[in-house]
Amino acid sequence: MNESTTENETLEISKSQRKRDAQELVNLARTMIAMPENRFKKLPLDEDLRSEVDFARSIKSHGARKRQLMTVGKMLRLRDNEDLLDAVNNIDKINRQANARFHLVETWRDRLIEGSDQVLSELLEQVPGANVQTLRQLIRNAKKEAQFGKSPAAARKLFKLLREMDAENPLPT
User: pLDDT of 64-81, one tens digit each?
Assistant: First the structure.
């Protein structure tokens, strides 16, 4: 931050810093407007701000939407936004974690289909209590489907089974 102290020990924030702070709040407003409805409803907003963001979400015209975005940004400048920032960051963190788990399950599925029995035994060592017979059958069917160019129904079932296993007991990375 570009802060300087005067003789009276008051802090002066530079004009550039105020502009950067305002731009961050406009970006926060842009994020809220673009959010899916179910996530937006969970944000801690007062009624005025919520109605303005809802109005911005309903606008189709680019220019009008941009003006409304600036209005929401101005409203954010007049408020304490710590709780709102924490809520948005928490939602982003949860989404990143869910995406990481999804990609991990995809990786295991691909490794099981492309790999040998050693990959399956590695999985079974890490996740006790897995249904070995069902896993072997789905892997075998998925390999056949890939070999003959059929639709990947068994691969989807394998993915679903692995995702259920991951929900009960997280799969190893």
Answer: 999 999 999 999 988 888
